[in-house]
Amino acid sequence: MKLPNKSLTLRFLILWVLISALFISGCNLFTSNEERFRKAIKHQEKGELSAATIEFKNIIKSDPEHAQARWQLGKTYLEMNDGLSAKKELLRARSLGISDTALVAALAKAYLLTTEPEEALRLLDETPSLPKDAENLSLRGEVELALGHTKAAKQNFQSSLAADPAYIRARYGLIRLALSEKSNTEAAQQIAKVLEVDENDFQGLIYQAEMELNKGNPQAAITAYSQALKSSDNTFVRIGLARAYLAVSNTVEADKQLEAVAEKVPNNLVVRYLKAVSAHQRSDLSTAKSLLLEVVGKAPEHYPSLLLLGSVHFNLAEYEQAINNLVRYLAHDETHVRAKKVLAQSYVKLGDLDRAIERLESAADTTPNDPELIMMLGNLYTGKGDYATGQSYYDKAMKLAPGVKEIETRMALNRWASGDHDQAIAELNKRVATS
């Protein structure tokens, strides 16, 4: 029996594969852009944003100047909170002749997502034909709020609600405005109106949680975040919940939330920072240091990390590193008293009392009624042998916090060191008698 020619068989197989591949791809090969566009819009309407994106991209690949496809792709990116991609497609659609005022509003939203509120405001100002309906009035409010124009923002949000009392984004805007101004009463009133309509309103619950954290009520924040989490497994909510748990020093529950976020977003720097906070609360300074160094390595101006890293270095007796990070932090926020205290203590550990005094006196200029700060200055001047100046600071600290035993003891030791032994003994006896 004659065997088949191997070369012929191989060529047949290759031909068959090529024909099959051509047949399989034939549907896509002969699908018109009009059909693709209809398909993409259906995906968009169903909320199938990834599928819609693929279809719009296929249209643009075959016809780069398909204005409607770029316009709809820009809208889809906007729904996905991808501001950069949305801006690119919307600008291209505009250059291709799309003059719809809805595109102007969409582009303004994209500018907000890319933190370009100045461009958003310029765009809105250049489009007087934009309808002054609830949506657009609220959008302008968001732009004004992003620019710090709180009065204009409030007027636009209120005008939006006057046009449509049910327009929820305007209500959200008023809540954000109140929270930014630390007006918890106003925020609470607006949040109550949102939750009155829907007690499980996702955004309303998040705002309630943020407000409670601002008010120093972390347990109430935990309740609100937990309720929001039931309706959406959202990374922002889990991060907020972790912050609330850390506010009550519940590192176990905080770590659970942070691990859940890390599984979805492995390189999130906020998660790493909060893990460092958790490690610091557990006195795991080595882990905290490692995490914080990673954060500031990738985000050198993440100031909360610089502040905490300074404290961690101090507790690890790494005083020069502590000074380096705290100086960088104070260049950003020179009013932070706690940072100045730790910085001064670091200088003391290195024997530089003059710089320590310089930092604390700077802090005392803005916070003159902090008894701990004033007592620390007394200690430093006493350490330098300037007992008179040290005593003046102790006297002031005692007036600010009468009866504090540590201040009384420091005063007595200062008097003894200055040679006023009788007064020192009298003050120590007084302390013993009242203890």
Determine the structural class based on helices, strands and strand pairing: mainly alpha
By CATH's scheme, which homologous superfamily of the domain at 267-367 applies?
Tetratricopeptide repeat domain
Give the strand tally. Answer: 0
Number of helices: 26
Give the helix level as a range of percent. over 70%
Estimated radius of gyration:
32 Å
**Content of β-strand:** under 5%
Shape descriptor reads elongated
Give start-end ranges of low-pLDDT stretches.
21-29
Q: What's the quaternary structure here?
A: single chain
Overall pLDDT score: 90
CATH class category of the domain at 267-367: Mainly Alpha
Q: What sequence of helices (H) and strands (E) makes up the elements?
A: HHHHHHHHHHHHHHHHHHHHHHHHHH
Distance between the termini: 115 Å
Can you tell me the CATH architecture of the domain at 267-367?
Alpha Horseshoe
Largest sheet: none
Describe what is shown at a glance.
Among the domains are: about 60 residues, Serine Threonine Protein Phosphatase 5, Tetratricopeptide repeat; about 100 residues, Tetratricopeptide repeat domain (Serine Threonine Protein Phosphatase 5, Tetratricopeptide repeat), CATH 1.25.40; about 60 residues, Tetratricopeptide repeat domain (Serine Threonine Protein Phosphatase 5, Tetratricopeptide repeat, Alpha Horseshoe). Helix content is about 80%, strand content about 0%.
